[in-house]
Amino acid sequence: MGDTGAEHWDAEYRRTGRVVFPRRRQALYSRPVLLSWVVVIVPTIGTVNDLDTRGGTWYYIRAVCAVILLAGAVTTTVHILRGAPALIVDTTGIHLGTRFVPWSAVTTIGTPVSSFFSDRLPIHLTDEDGDEDELEIPRDNVDDLPSLAAWLNHLHTERQVS
């Protein structure tokens, strides 16, 4: 659903009351994922080269760090392959993974922000106490963040009017 346009999202929203954006497979090629694998591979090469001269504290520290980094890279890759976390927009609000934001807490939908590591859409929030917060929707779920921003603004305006 994240590779289609706002017309499809709106039609699905009107038909079922919700739109589900699972994490796209293209997120596997994002900078953070590729960087996590590079960070695993480079130290592991040096550790494997020292297998014949085992011994010393530094060897064991490098081996433990390589295992921890490998676990992190595998976990990130598995989450992407499973499509988690999913972005769900429904009549009650916005769900991103386990985080839920009701429409009443949304103050503004920001403009997409691009950085070296990721592109994201900030959604500015205010809770019951008046504290400000922000929910960031990554490009991992939706390819066209400007269209998503426009569509969410449209839904937010509708919710305010009704």
TrEMBL record:
Entries under Pfam families matching the protein: bPH_6
Taxonomy, superkingdom: Bacteria
Keywords, ordered alphabetically: Membrane, Transmembrane, Transmembrane helix
Annotated TM spans: 28-46, 58-81
Domain Low molecular weight protein antigen 6 PH positions: 96-150
Protein name: Low molecular weight protein antigen 6 PH domain-containing protein
